[in-house]
Amino acid sequence: MERSLMILVSTLIYYVTRLSLIALVLVLHIKTDGISNGAIHAEALVSSRPIPKLGSLRNVCITPACICASSSILNNMDPSVDPCDDFHQFVCGNYRKMTNIPDDEETVGGLQKLRELLQIHLRQTLKGNVNPSEPKPFALLKKLYRVCMNETAIELDGLTTAKSILKELGGWPLLGGQKLDREKFDTRSLRVFFDFKVRPGSRNTSRNVIYVFHASSIFFSTYPYHMVVKYLEQLYSFMVDIAVIFGASKEVAEKEFVNVFRLAEKLHYIKKYINCRARFLTSMSELQNTFPTIPWLKYFNLAFNFPDIHDINMVNICPAHIFEVENLLKSTSKGTQANYFMWMTVFKMASHLTKDLRQRRLNYISLLTGQLRRQARWKQCVAVVAQSMPVATGALYVRKYFRRETKRHVMEMVSDIKSEFINILKQADWLDNTTKNLALEKTLAMVSHVAYPDEILLNKNLEVYYEGLNFTSENYLDMRSRLELFERECSAKSLRLPINKTDWTTHAESAVVNAFYTVKENSIQLPAGILQEAFFSIDRPQFMNYGSIGYIIGHEITHAFDNNGMNYDKDGKLSDSSSLSSAIQKFNEKGKCFISQYDNYTIPELQVNLNGLQTLGENIADNGGFRVAYLGYKRWVKRNGKDPRLPILNYTGSQMFWIAAATTLGCSKQRVEYTEYNFYTSDPHPPKKVRVNFPLANTDYFANDFNCPKGSKMNPVDKCRVWK
């Protein structure tokens, strides 16, 4: 009753203070001279909703960043909800109620807004004229963007270049005018039946090897039966339509794609049911001898140009998988294989071809994701440029838009959070001393790549990196083919050289809104693209930064000790320490609590329960990430003193940490189709509501800060924890 009255009082207070809020914003607006690049208007901060606690202007942060943060938090909140009952709804309830998903998106939220801002910045730079004094890679970026934007030329070219590419791959007999070149086809088609990756070895991370994985599948048979039928009907229709657009007879295509369907389905089931935990390192020659009907040597020579190292053990394989695929291909006609290979090739090209093909592709994709409209052409082209030349794109972005002092501040945050994670490890009473020391060594050895490597600020480094890349044609598909060749050449070079885990070229993708933990390097990467706006700002209190980017830092550090990461040592090698077996057993016992907790959550849009095992790694990282980021913030406060408050919001710094964290992670919305797609294609991330509420409910820090009664939903008696 007392908590309900407090919430009611907060609601009433809002109406009394509304005029004061308008006056405050107007004064601050004048003081900041309109706040260029996004002026804050009074109406943006005022809504028809009540707000929670209100405070005076004493010790208040009035920077533009603080005003924006306060406005965003207030507009997102649903203060009628008790934070101890449903914190996600309390922080994000109004956001979900008032926010519409754009027609060209599957989801909307903080990450998407950040990506759009990044795209806008890149567009402003890419559409400019080439400056004769700028480095060659920047000129290549602008040329690629310009050619991509020239839809008139793409329409005039039609399918001419695409058909030439298919002919080079061996030809697509289904089209009538092309005969199958068996030698070309046999060699080049391997890439749709297997996926080849160049990565560090599992036991020896000082050198790269070639991994042979399952190829990506066009089937998602984990959908419920009624959805599978609808999905497969649409997929079949899509496949036939694409073939017809390329010139195939509809009658022939309908007949042939029945066999293609069967092949794709069998490949999917091999991928789904073959256990590939047992992988082995072998040589190209031995691989050829063991599976003789597959032209491995020809493919490796073509893809990596390595005729002189056939006898070196540098191919990591799953024999059971290859055995099944080889047998399947033996029993499948070359015509069916060719139709599958060529269609998969065309599917990957479709988004870069004519408007008709792009629209037909969207019609199919919308079935899976709910996206209603194609993105603006400039957005598509910015994405193409960023994905095709990430090093140069990152350099272009950070030179023009990134505040250099941000890097130093975030590195300080990483240091704080890592120090607290070390303290957590020291307190882990379920680890024996040997295992604990190994864990401490691993954490201390972890490398942090923050924002960008300094090398990308030097033109000479970019020139050397891209010296083998030139665009001699104005044809868009030709340029994309040249980029694919350049990427393969880079992979081939990496096979010949020892690995340098701190090599700047492997950590230069700075124009990215994401963060990573790389298990083979034992490193975290925080690109410049995510260190902006809602996730980080120098001009706002640290509870906002530790709650947002701090949580992400903690999340990535914790991945080093999730159900996958804990199997690797400080150098990124698969650990063979005998002491680990006992620790893993205890870890798995703790993991069962998380599995059970998340298993019991029903996704309301789908009326199905989460798979706690499928999401275990992310759940452990979320729980650890919030906890260690909170402790990192407390460490900062102890060193620097308390933060100033945000305007209007009268919460403690500790409470604001949780509000900031929930806002950053949880205030988003996605289409039901996309929720469905993610769930049935084994997305390792649970829904945002779960990612906020469950980790917070598992920690006493949150319950203490919000005075949540024992036994309330956000302070359950039984909690799941790996780390104290």
Automatic annotation (TrEMBL):
Cofactors = Zn(2+)
* Location of the Peptidase M13 N-terminal domain: 83-453
Name the source's superkingdom.
Eukaryota
Q: Where in the cell is it found?
A: Cell membrane
Q: Name one GO cellular component term.
A: plasma membrane
Q: Name one Pfam family in it.
A: Peptidase_M13
State the InterPro entries in the record: MetalloPept_cat_dom_sf (IPR024079), Peptidase_M13 (IPR000718), Peptidase_M13_C (IPR018497), Peptidase_M13_dom_2 (IPR042089), Peptidase_M13_N (IPR008753)
Give the UniProt record's GO annotations in the biological process aspect: protein processing
Q: Where is the Peptidase M13 C-terminal domain?
A: 514-722
Name a GO molecular-function annotation: metalloendopeptidase activity
**Transmembrane spans:** 12-30
Instruction: Kindly state which keywords UniProt assigns to this record, in alphabetical order.
Output: Hydrolase, Membrane, Metal-binding, Metalloprotease, Protease, Transmembrane, Transmembrane helix, Zinc
What is its membrane topology? Single-pass type II membrane protein
Q: Which family does it belong to?
A: Belongs to the peptidase M13 family.
Q: What name has this protein been given in UniProt? A: Peptidase M13 N-terminal domain-containing protein
From which source organism is this entry? Answer: Photinus pyralis (Common eastern firefly)
Source species taxonomy = Eukaryota, Metazoa, Ecdysozoa, Arthropoda, Hexapoda
